[in-house]
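Changelog-adjacent note: as of this version, every example in the card shows the full chain rather than a window. The one below runs 155 residues end to end.
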Amino acid sequence: MPPPGDWPAGAVNTAVVPTGHAGRIAFAKKGKIINGWESLVEYSLIKDKKLGFGVGDIDVSYVDGFTYPILCTCKGVRLSGCYDNLWTQGKTCPEENGQGACKNPHRMKKDIDHAHEWFKLCEHKAYTYSKDDQANSNGKCQSGTVECEIMPGKP
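Full-length structure tokens:
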């Protein structure tokens, strides 16, 4: 895993994940506190009992909140995420924390089946509510490197 810290524009980091590992990486603005409202890349490499080897899975999540648009691909094919910068869509964030993050009003609500209006552009591309399962890569990349690009965030 890349260590916590600043990633300059255009930086590339590599994470090698052992079978059985799952986790997530949060993206916040330099010098800002990570408070649970950030854009996330979530990943796992779980051994599939039928196949006998590790099956990778990855998704971009805005369920807790949004800081940056993120898109993850494998060999040029979109796995999860979207390039839509929600800060520039002309709508008001429902709850901004003053640290460059917008809290998702649908977080922690298990009975919701749609994205909040502010997160709608990324619905089904990135997780925008807890059951937005179309945003999951579902093991689509088993023979390549997953690349996640973080786009510029709030202007």
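Structural remarks: The chain has one domain: 21-150.
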